[in-house]
Model the fold of this input.
Amino acid sequence: MNLSNGLLLMILGSSLLPGLAIFFLREGSHRLRTLLNMFGAVFKLILVGVLTWGVLHEQIFETRWMLAPGLELVLHADALSVLFVTLSTILWLVTTVYAIGYLEGSPHRSRFFGFFSLCVTATVGLALAGNLFTFVLFYELLTLSTYPLVAHKGSEKSVRGARIYLAYTLTGGLFLLIGAVWLQSLAGPVEFVEGGVLSQLSSELHGELVIIFLLLMIGLGVKAALVPLHGWLPQAMVAPAPVSALLHAVAVVKAGAFGIVRVVYDVYGIEFSADLGVLLPLGIVAAVTIVYGSIRALSQDHLKKRLAYSTVSQVSYIALGTAIFGPLGTIGGVVHLVHQGVMKITLFFAAGNYAETLGIHKVSEMNGVGRRMPGTTLAFSIGALGMIGIPPVAGFVSKWYLGIGALEAGMAGWVLPVLIASSILNAAYFLPILYRAWFMPQKAQWPDEQVVLPNRETHASLLWPPLVTASLALAAGLFAAAPFSPLEWAELIADREYIR
Done:
């Protein structure tokens, strides 16, 4: 095995091995646990940087193991996988710093960080999957590794939320498995190839391929929180803030959205998907989810639940972009994979800071919090404005490309109204929060204010992560045309996916 092939294993191992070691650490081994967490996260980032450079210069990275006839474990890096791996790796590093500060002094930290590392390993594994079998394997490992994180607090409410999450995601995984097995029985081992692999199958199989597409979308739609498969997501908000951030921005929800992109572009192929007539139904489901999630967010006083329904809405922009038949729509959907991640993780970091420092869990408790926690609230404001689509934050870039992509594809008649309605609804549930935080006087004492060092709004390990991710969201918008920006990488992916 040469260095190029071994790099993929090293990327997986950089989180897997520290995670396994952390399970065996005593609770009091704070320094060693922190060292293992940070070493794994930084080392993975360096390795992913090398991978990105190689893929950009068309170097081949692939590793294969034959497990049984017809079942081959394949790791392969292409432009799409590198985009998702880079997002996961950067946000894992930031979330690790945040989680170390957030869980300071709490019990079961070794268990938490062990499963935390396994979760990231599964996410990176499915991103680097070179065929459908490998993807399904890591997809299910992701489900199993995140369940203990959702149930981490051990309360009755946490365990109930985790069981709902497990029931939904295992059921979705079953649909995905059925679809994958059925597809392999028709086409043989299904590799991920830019442009798709199914267009050469006999037209007599097209009916079956449509049904299989539905099964795969149900399986992926559970994690992507497509309506009506989204019910687990608000319930999972009982998890600690670092887990919520992980679920919404890095791992579970984004894994479902990434899977939808993979199946449409690299299994079926965008042109063959259009010929089968499956793009329009996917687009309609995404549009309904976008509007429904925004409407439900309006009535939520609990901050994390409002953000959860916002995620239901925002992640479906990725599915909508996938369903728009044209390069510009593809760019809008794929780049939102990154943009939504950095904006949403900022919002959940800020929500965790409000809860951990002041005991604030509800929107109605946020009056004047901007003066008490200006750095956190500034980060929250940038994330919220980006979600609305206000320039120059990254969210504007995503919505702009989705809009012009719809015009290019002749779908503006229904896509543009969805985007406009969603932006108005986004403003309706985010702007009142910002008004309360910055302009309304504090009602009374904070619900549960913690003692922090003088002249500091909260601990540094909690403050800097949202400021960093908010800066990334702003930079992704301001420097969208710069080399190596998410937008440039999305343009590269779109160029490779469409047959010219």
About this structure: Strands lie at 62-68, 71-76. The mean pLDDT is 90.
